[in-house]
């Protein structure tokens, strides 16, 4: 551990939490990750009960993993995706599945983005990040410690400390909440804003997620229903995402609600029903609509990121990539300082730059869901006619009149989080002298990294 390093506490060994730990360690800082679950795995925006859910990594996330030296692990554990085929969700008079069209990813766009579409088993992806986070750093001498079974029950934004259920208090230079939409850090910032989220106030899109052995990648679009299937890692199982306009069962607000996915299919093609019959229990995840006005506490010492800051629609194709972008950005800006007095400035810079980027991502994800869940009617008929015509002519469905959508995708994939962070530093950060900032210094009292706590680390 270096004397000049900053010390961070990250609440949640999620994708956001572990990725941020990797980036901050690479930037020369020490990180303590606190995870309430007893072991790694099963954490994510679309998890299955056994952690077998699909981690979708589009090109803008893939290139971050490659830059972190994970190319060999990517090749060993992920399945590439070259495009998708779209079908009608409900049964039609057409014999066999009613195929609307196909979209193949443009190789030129992927080359420009320096990455591809990857699909991991969620638990394999989290394990990959965990192993990298704990890997010793010869360059900086900094380290990451992960403590399992350590639930944070209180966050003191002014003292920059967290209290565990055991009563232990940990203090740092900065606290980062990566514990999701229901986590304690997000709740703390909501309370600071004078708002709260109540069970039952969030109707809208619900995602029912389950896993099926050995299937193909498809998208089924229907009237207020939509289905996506993804090949999962090297196992070639399938991750099934069913979207409905319903609200998850009340129990889903406090715990993962397992139900039979066949109970919520509605009118559908018989092939969908047969596929659903092969699944185990499904997990229902509700779209979190409430948004934090500020991702940073009034003290400037506590930050939320990932789902805790900017929840995307459940099963969003950009959910994992947005978490990786957050991590890459936070690590890059903090590579420029070891001063505790600059932590508030840097956390607010993170919010300033990442909010606009995430708003752009959310707009695209909402548009995508709109097309999948489009109810039957004139607009739906026009969509189907257009897609069928493009397919009959041998073209991708995201061409022609949907060219703007394709351009948005190009912009989304070409984004580089570290370049964005460097832009802030070159434009603003390097001209601010630390002595001119409010000297709010918090003591790192030694409670952060001691031998007794390290002994609690579990694999």
Describe what you observe in this structure.
By secondary structure, the chain is of the alpha/beta class. The chain contains 13 helices and 19 strands. The strands form 4 sheets. It has an 8-stranded mixed beta sheet. A 5-stranded parallel beta sheet has the order 8-2-1-12-19. Helix 1 (15-26) runs parallel beside helix 8 and helix 8 (319-333) packs parallel to helix 12 (417-427). It is globular and about 70 Å long.
Distance N to C terminus: 22 Å
Low-pLDDT residue spans = 43-49, 198-202, 252-257, 434-459
Mean pLDDT: 82
Amount of beta strand: 15-25%
Query: Class by helix and strand content?
Result: alpha/beta
Overall morphology: globular
Largest sheet: 8 strands, mixed
Tell me the Rg in angstroms.
22 Å
Helix content: 25-40%
Number of strands: 19
Spatial strand sequence of the major β-sheet? 6-5-14-15-16-13-18-17
| Number of helices in the DSSP assignment | 13
Keywords: FAD, Flavoprotein, Monooxygenase, Oxidoreductase
Pfam families: FAD_binding_3
Domain FAD-binding: 9-358
Protein name: FAD-binding-3 domain-containing protein
């Amino acid at each position: 551990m270096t004397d000049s390093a900053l010390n961070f506490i990250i609440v949640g060994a999620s994708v956001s939490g572990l990725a941020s730990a990797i980036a901050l360690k690479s930037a020369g800082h020490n990180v303590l990750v606190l995870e309430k679950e007893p072991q790694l795995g099963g954490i994510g925006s679309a998890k299955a009960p056994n952690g077998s859910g699909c981690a979708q990594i589009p090109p803008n996330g893939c290139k971050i993993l490659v830059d972190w030296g994970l190319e060999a692990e990517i090749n060993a554990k992920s399945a590439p995706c070259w495009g998708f085929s779209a079908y009608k969700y409900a049964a039609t008079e057409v014999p066999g599945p009613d195929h609307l069209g196909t979209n193949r990813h443009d190789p030129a766009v992927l080359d420009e983005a320096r990455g591809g579409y990857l699909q991991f088993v969620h638990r394999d992806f989290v394990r990959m990040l965990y192993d990298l986070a704990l890997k010793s750093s010869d360059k900086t001498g900094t380290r990451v410690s992960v403590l399992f079974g350590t639930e944070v029950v209180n966050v003191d934004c002014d003292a920059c400390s967290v209290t565990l259920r055991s009563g232990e208090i940990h203090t740092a230079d900065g606290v980062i909440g990566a514990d999701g939409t229901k986590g304690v850090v997000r709740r703390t910032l909501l309370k600071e804003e004078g708002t709260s989220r109540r069970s039952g106030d969030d109707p809208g899109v619900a995602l029912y997620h389950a896993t099926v052995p050995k299937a193909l990648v498809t998208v089924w679009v229907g009237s207020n229903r939509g289905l996506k299937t993804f090949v999962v890692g090297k196992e070639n199982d399938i991750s099934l995402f069913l979207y409905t306009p319903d609200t998850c069962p009340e129990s889903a607000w406090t715990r993962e609600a397992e139900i039979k996915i066949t109970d919520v299919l509605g009118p559908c093609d018989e092939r969908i029903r047969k596929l659903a019959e092969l699944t185990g229990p499904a997990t229902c995840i509700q779209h979190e609509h409430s948004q934090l006005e500020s991702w940073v506490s009034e003290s400037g010492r506590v930050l939320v990121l990932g789902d805790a800051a900017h929840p995307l629609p459940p099963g969003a194709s950009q959910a994992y990539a947005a978490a990786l972008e957050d991590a890459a950005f936070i690590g890059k800006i903090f590579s420029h300082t070891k001063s505790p007095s600059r932590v508030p400035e840097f956390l607010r810079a993170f919010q300033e730059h990442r909010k606009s980027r995430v708003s752009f991502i959310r707009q695209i994800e909402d548009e995508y869901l709109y097309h999948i869940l489009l109810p039957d009617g004139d607009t739906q008929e026009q969509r189907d006619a257009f897609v069928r015509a493009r397919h009959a002519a041998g073209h991708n469905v995201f061409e022609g009149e949907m060219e703007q959508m394709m351009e948005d995708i190009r912009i989304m994939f070409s984004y580089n989080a570290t370049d964005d962070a460097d832009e802030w530093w070159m434009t603003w950060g390097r001209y601010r002298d630390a002595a001119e900032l409010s000297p709010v210094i918090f003591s790192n009292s030694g409670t952060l990294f001691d031998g007794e706590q390290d002994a609690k680390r579990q694999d």
